[in-house]
């Protein structure tokens, strides 16, 4: 791989990492919201939706990590 493509991939990696930080921040906010739901609402639809959102964002973070790893391997 030439330096031009390697630099382009590194730029994409940086962008993915920025997006990852944004998703992680949103996930943390949703987790805080979930943690502060009163006990009497823990079985509610609102609780389930927040829990599912946190799970989905965790999956998205895992996928972003995998993408970065694959791109780093491509430049090795």
- The tally of beta strands, per DSSP, is 0
Radius of gyration of CA atoms, rounded to a whole number = 17 Å
Largest sheet: none
Distance between the termini: 9 Å
- H and E order: HH
Structural class: mainly alpha
* Overall mean pLDDT: 96
**Overall 3D shape:** rod-shaped
Oligomer: single chain
Task: Kindly state the percentage of residues in helix.
Answer: over 70%
* Beta fraction: under 5%
| Count of discrete structural domains | 1
Number of helices: 2
List the uncertain runs. none
Q: Care to describe what's here?
A:
With 76 residues, this protein is mainly alpha-helical. The N and C termini lie close together (9 Å). It has one domain. The protein contains two helices and no strands.
Keywords:
mainly alpha; 76 residues; 2 helices
How would you concisely characterize the structure shown here?
The protein is mainly α and 76 residues long. It has helices at residues 3-35, 45-75.
Any chance you could write out the topology, listing elements then pairs?
Layout: H1 3-35, H2 45-75
């Amino acid at each position: 791989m030439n330096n031009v493509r390697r630099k382009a991939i590194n730029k994409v990696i940086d962008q993915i990492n920025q997006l990852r930080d944004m998703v992680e921040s949103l996930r943390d906010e949703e987790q805080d919201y979930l943690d502060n739901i009163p006990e009497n609402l823990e079985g509610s639809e609102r609780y389930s939706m927040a829990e599912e959102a946190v799970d989905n964002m965790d999956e998205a973070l895992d996928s972003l990590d995998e993408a970065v790893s694959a791109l780093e391997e491509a430049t090795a």
